[in-house]
Amino acid sequence: MRILSGIQPSGRPHLGNYFGMMQPSILLQEQGDAFYFIADYHALTSTHDPEVLRQNVRDLAIDFLACGLDPEKSTFWVQSDVPEVTELAWILSCVTPMGFLERCVSYKDKIAQGISPSHGLFAYPVLQAADILLFDSNVVPVGKDQKQHLELTRDVASKFNDRYGEDLLVIPEPQIREVAATVPGLDGRKMSKSYDNSIEIFEETEKKLRKKVMKIVTDTTAVEDPKDPTDSYLIQLYSLVATPEEVAEMEDSFRAGGTGYGHYKQQIFEGIRDHFAPMREKREKLVEDSAYVDGVLEDGARKARAKAREVIDRVRNAVGC
Ligand code: TYM
Fold first, then answer.
1. 147: CA distance to ligand 1 center in Å?
2. CATH number of 202-284
3. Are strands 2-7 and 33-38 parallel, antiparallel or unpaired?
4. CA 20 to 30 Å from 133, out of 14, 205, 273, 284?
5. CATH 1.10.240.10 boundaries in the chain
6. Relative to the CA of 142, which ligand 1 atom is closest?
């Protein structure tokens, strides 16, 4: 089974990235042939400063390794080090109806935010389909916001297979974990860099982390009154870093009343701090060892490229190029 996923180097990873994609990817590396990459070509749609992009790629590679990505078990590379992906993206563009892309919610969202769209932003899902299909991927661990892009990938692969031959491209399945499908941000909307509502997994200081957690929006129920744990952002965030027993205790305490939201936020802060403490330590060591990080990415690119060549040869042969 080939497992594959990607993440954009568009800033430091937040809890949504970690629990939606990085943690499941790290768990899945025990269960199959795992392929993970840093999507720098995708980040070009929004990051236009080359130094910032380079630094973001580097930081994200270190963050992912610190969190437990094991290069002995997973192939880990930077997307642009396997340029065959852009070749496949073009070929797939020629089987993708415009309507597929016009329907994409993430594109429509960006336009609604006032971003003037480039062709790259519009074609973004085709490049993502190429990322996945270039490696014969079976399973793609992602957050719920990527569901539509995965559906598009499946549709594009089917169109390609209908036109050029059955079973040429492997149809992938998304894997979305219920508990972290959409991790809420400080304002209750999806946690996202572009909404400025994120908690990074490695906030600079404990003080900054605590300050952010204290900012999570809550309703105005008085301290002494019972509170509803259903659909509470606090409970949702706590579930990510606490045991089921600890979550049940917090839920009981909500229902009983007599405790203010500030107390729960303190527990969430401590939960997040403790969850990432060993990874933070590992990160500090990796920052000092850039030769190791370079070696991992070079090695990963070499392995990924060998697989990519196999698929691109099959595809070129099928289309007549
Ligand atoms: P990106 O970089 O925005 O996010 C990386 C991963 O984090 C997940 N995620 C979340 N999950 C739960 N709750 C949240 N609040 C939250 N925010 C982000 C995303 O769902 C994603 O899994 N297009 C992709 C990158 C990509 C890719 C691919 C993914 C490029 N090629 C091929 C899979 C396969 C993206 O922008 O993710």
1. 10
2. 1.10.240.10
3. parallel
4. 14
5. 202-284
6. 22
Whether 69 contacts 76, CB under 8 Å:
yes
Single pTM value for the model: 0.97
181 CA closest ligand 1 atom index: 12
Q: Which residue has the tokens 């009981």?
A: 252
Residue nearest to atom 18 of ligand 1 (CA): 17
Angle in degrees, CA 67, 70, 72, rounded to 5: 170
110 is catalytic: yes
**By the 8 A CB rule, do 261 and 218 touch?**
yes
Is 207 one of the annotated active-site residues of the chain?
A: no
What does CATH list as the number for 2-182+290-319? 3.40.50.620
Active site residue 307: no
Hey, which of 5, 19, 21 would you mutate to test ligand 1's pocket, going by the most ligand atoms within 8 Å of its Cβ? 21
What six digits make up the tokens of 139?
């399973």
Q: What is the pLDDT of residues 209-259, one digit of tens each?
A: 999 999 999 999 999 999 999 989 999 999 999 999 999 999 999 999 999
CA of 158 to the centre of ligand 1 (A): 23
